Amino acid sequence: MNRQNKQVRVGCGALIINEKDETLLIKRGTKAKNQSGIWSQPGGAIDFGETVEHAIKREIDEELDVTVKLIKYLCYTNQILNKESQHWVAISYLAEIIKGEPKNLEAHKHDDMRWFPVDKLPSKLSITTKDSTKAYLSSRK
User: Fold this and answer.
1) Residues 23, 118: contact at Cβ < 8 Å?
2) Span 61-114, pLDDT tens digits
3) Ranges for the Nudix hydrolase domain (predicted)?
């Protein structure tokens, strides 16, 4: 990868879990910044001057029109996407919805949105979501 003019970006997201031990995932569409066709936990970039926690809540509200409560930090992921010439350090939290019903407000970027049992996730899964799911399942033992 050519390192000239490349920057590491900081992102965030949440593994949203419901009372059935399912997680809410979005399928990235062709107009997403990266990883088209991949299922991912909701989240996005952290803005300058914004805390990680605020960014997660803001991104989820913008994408899904719900309010979440952050339960705990899960992990971080170095997500190096050679195909897209991107490097993201993504911080993941465990969260639960405390207000609203999820809606796909960014249909131009996300092709689908579904609840999946945490032990039966789709095969095309983002690295960040794999890492946060692994951290979540390890914390339950």
Assistant:
1) yes
2) 999 999 999 999 999 999 888 887 888 899 999 999 999 999 999 888 888 999
3) 7-138
Q: CA 68 → CA 29, 40, 61, 141, distances in Å? A: 24, 17, 8, 24
CB 16 within 8 A of CB 103: no
Query: Are the C-beta atoms of residues 25 and 114 closer than 8 Å to each other?
Result: yes
DSSP reduced 3-state for 81: strand
C-alpha triplet 9, 126, 66: angle, nearest 5° = 80
pTM, to two decimals: 0.89
> CA distances (Å), 44 to each of 4, 5, 30, 33, 119, in order?
24, 21, 16, 10, 24
Residue spans per domain, the chain? 8-139
CATH topology of domain 8-139: Nucleoside Triphosphate Pyrophosphohydrolase (3.90.79)
Q: What is the DSSP string of 31-51?
A: TSSS-TT-EE-SEEEPPTT--
